[in-house]
Amino acid sequence: MIAMVLSLFGARLVQLQGLDPEQYAAMAAAEGTVDVVLPATRGDILDRNGQPLAQSIEGVAIIGDPTMTADQAPQIAKFLAEQLDVDYFRVLPLLREHKTKTGEPARFEYLARHVPATVGEQVLQQAESRHFEGLTSLRDPVRTYPGGDIGANITGFMGIDKPYGGLEEVFDKDLSGQDGSEKYEVGDGNRIPLGDSVTKPARDGQDLHTTIDRDLQWYAQRTLRQAVEDAKGDSGIAVVMDTRTGEVLALADDPTFSASDPAAAKVKDRRARSLNLAYEPGSVEKVLTLSALIDAGKATARDRLLVPGELDRQDRVIHDHWEHGLIKLTLAGVLAKSSNVGTVLASDKFAPGELRAYLAKFGLGQPTNVGLGAESRGNLPDPALWTSQVGDRIAFGQSLSVNAMQMTAAVNTIANKGVRVDPTLIQGEARRDDGMEIGTDVSTTRRVVSADAARQMTLMMERVVDEDDGVAPAANVPGYRVAGKTGTAQRVVTCTVNGVKQGCYDGSNTVSFAGFAPAEDPRFTVYVVIQNPRISGAGGGSTAGPVFSKLMGYALHRYGVAPSHRKQTVLPVEW
Hints:
By secondary structure, this protein is an alpha+beta fold. The protein contains 19 helices and 26 strands. The protein has 3 domains: 29-46 and 141-210, Penicillin-binding protein 2a (Domain 2) (Alpha-Beta Complex), CATH 3.90.1310; 59-140, Alpha-Beta Plaits (2-Layer Sandwich), CATH 3.30.70; 214-258 and 274-558, 3-Layer(aba) Sandwich (Beta-lactamase), CATH 3.40.710. The strands form 9 sheets. It has a 5-stranded antiparallel beta sheet with strand order 15-14-26-25-24, with helices on both faces. Strands 1, 10, 11 and 12 form a 4-stranded antiparallel beta sheet that branches. Helix 4 runs antiparallel to helix 5 (88-95). The longest helix has 19 residues, at 540-558.
């Protein structure tokens, strides 16, 4: 019997030491080791002056060792649910003894992530006073948004361990950095001071510097919100751009959300409508149409047109927004009065495909790649679909669609003496997760129309805000010469005709105003859009124009732009 017992011991020793000693040594070591993730600190998202739009502050993760918490799992789960608002039923199984994927006893489980450091310290102190064992903490930075809703449509927000939308998502790799790791030995649930340990330090994320002016962004959001509420509209967009550099100083959406509490908002309000909402621009389009006609050498600001009250063109009758008989307008007057009929008559001088080529050079039908993801391209109809009827409607801003950033950059081309500059939200140069390089250092420019064509169009746009002859005197900024254009367009919705879904007009409107100042030496371009205003008499000049005036006035004064030294230019409107 003694010989038999000794032979069993001998066989086991041979198995442990002779056949596979490394495997058993690893299993033994695993029983007393813990693998820990060392979270990297996420980079901040900063405005142009270094003020934080999104930042990381000190925080902790609450960690559980299931081999020590199992006996008190229900009590600890209830305690954590009360103190940290975690899900009791998610935490409970993590506190009970279980195996890892490799079959080893679990010694490390995240129970709560991104807890402010002071809160985490208080929770652990209370846990100790209740004699709860197996709870520890680990550094785990907390993502915060100091301004709440300020720039939330730009930054996006962080979930527990995943970004959602905005710059947080498209620049996640650079912002997140690289987590580190640590493996160390434990005994009786405690770290062995002189035990083996291996540490790989975390690499913190990079800060992202935007072109946004946080104070201007705040003012734009509040002004836009009030305007949407006053107009009883569905939503609104406001863009403020540096004319010369294309830097976006403010990009406001309403309704928006607080990045600190995104769950409280509707999903559609957590997106950047300024980039992913496509709509028909209306009469703001006339700036592009008529400046292209001037650049092509086929018109001037003083050209004379006989404009009837309506125009019978193939499939439908084209009207103006006011009733009139046969009137005599200059091309400047066509723009000042925002005449659809006059614009179509002038556009008859374009050669086939000529207007579409100009609109493509202005950037319509193409993403701006300003810095955010999920951007709509809009719709610039293909040449094969560009019939004479479609061309007529496109000339005054219907039958094509744009996003607000595209339209801002297009109008800014006139302000920038005919040269289009890429709009951007990023200072310097940065690479998105999809590999695209963007930023002020890689921004490109291209000439779209001549400097003389841009000059003539600027003088024409000044007549739009004229107190006597223009349609938008409310867009004026005291002390400055303003060039601008109103827009009112029917909105396209999805409808069903004979069982087929298609786009159709539902009777609601998009109203807008785009312009720049000072007109003699433009510094900023501002574009305001309000969707579906429900008040009587809502239009681009009366509804969006006052918002433009406030935003432009604020920007000019904030950046110390000197008042205009000459009076508004007066071109003839009638002949």
